[in-house]
Every structure is written in C-alpha cells, then in structure tokens.
Amino acid sequence: MVQETVNAIQEADTEPERNLDEGLAAVVDRVLDKGLVINADIRVSVKDVELLGITIRAALASFETAAQYGLQFPSGTNMQTAAWKDAMVGKEECPQCGKRVPEEQLLNESCPWCGWVSAKAKAAKEVPLQKCT
Amino acid sequence: MTIKSPTMSRSHKGLKQVLDRALDKGTVADARLRVKIGKLELVRLRAITILSSFETAARHSLTLPAGINYNAKGWKKITGMDSCPQCSKKVLVQELKEGCPWCGFRLGGV
Questions:
Q1: Which of B15, B62, B87 sits opposite A27 (nearest CB)?
Q2: What is the pLDDT of residues B16-33, one digit of tens each?
Q3: What is the interface pTM, i.e. ipTM, of the complex?
Q4: How far are the Cα atoms of A107, B1, B12 from residue B102, in angstroms, in the given order?
Q5: What whole-number distance in Å separates Cα of residue A23 and Cα of residue B17?
C-alpha cells in the first residue's frame, strides 16, 4: 500500500516538465484547428442609462482552418499562392504518426509518412484477394 | 486495436479532452455585475459570452463575423457527421453504421 503510494508520487514527480509545454501546444493546436467562435454582448449602464455597449463577433482559427471555412482575409492577401492551395485541400491527422495528410490519400491509400492503412483501404485490398481464391 | 500517440502524457490528454468538450458542446457565460456604494448603484454591467468551435457554431447557427463564404468546404462537412467512438474521427453517420472507414470500428461490435 505504502509502496504503491510512493510509486505514484515518484511517477508524478518524474513526469517531465516539458509535458506542460506540450500540453499547451496541443491545446493551441486543437483550438486553431477546430476554430473558435467568440460572440459577446456587453452592456454597461450607469443609473439605468446605457453608457457603453460592445458587441463582439469573432472567429479565431489557423490559416488552414480559416481557408477551409472561407473566412475573410485582410485585403491584400494573395490567395493564389501554393501554400493557400495546399491549405484548401482537406487534410486529416494520421492516427498513427499524427502527420497531416490529404484526407483522400489517407483514407483510400495509406499514410505516406508512416505507412498506416485505414480500415477502408484494407477492405478494398482484401476484396480482390478473396475473389482470386 | 487502440491507437495511442507515444508522446501523449495523461495530463496533456486530459487538457485536450476538456477543451474538446467545452468547444464541442459550446460554452455560454452570462454575467451580471453591479457596483454599489451604500444604496447608490454606480455601475451595472451585463455580459453574455459564447465560446464554441466552428462546427458547433454552425450547428446552432450562431452569428459569425461578416464576410464568411458559407459555400466553403468546411461548412459542408458539418451536417450528418458524427465522431467514431473508437478513433474519434469525424465520419458520415451512414458510413459509420457500416463500419468506421478509419479504424474499422463496427456498431455493436459486429
């Protein structure tokens, strides 16, 4: 019992500090990837007289997500560059290596980075084999 | 088959999950603040704030900033999608019933 507790404490202690940074990075990654909508109505009144009213309609996203959802970019942004075209391709995270790969390729073929194969691609490969035998 | 990222620690995963939940469900904060000195009310403040992911915002048709192109790819992926219980990838519900194309998960374990 005591040994278990000691082990648990040691485990907690030895968890590298870097994990905190990684956690934060993962959170930022996630937020920018999913996109964040912030809508707020704020009213400030003094003695029943409305003094200040603020309406916020904000969207926060990474370049890729913003491009995917057609968010407006500041004037003067050249959307014809290769990077934007790349961002417009729907990408998905490989479940094995975490690299972002075009969804079609990842789902229908395999991950070009680690070779992970989706269930759909596996099934597609298996069917012709069964026919042969 | 469980898919685990080797670099992911427990706390790191927890934080990510909390955030996922909060954004996917949508979070609303309704705050009222009154500042009084004696019986004299000085300031009254009311703030209603909504935080959500793009998907949730679209599903609940929240007002988004002007100038968004709603014909973009991303918006089309929202209706009829659900996340796979095993790999949590977003898949069309119809497809998911036949087995997740990503991890092969089948409803009811069939």
A1: B15
A2: 888 888 888 999 999 999
A3: 0.72
A4: 7, 12, 24
A5: 11
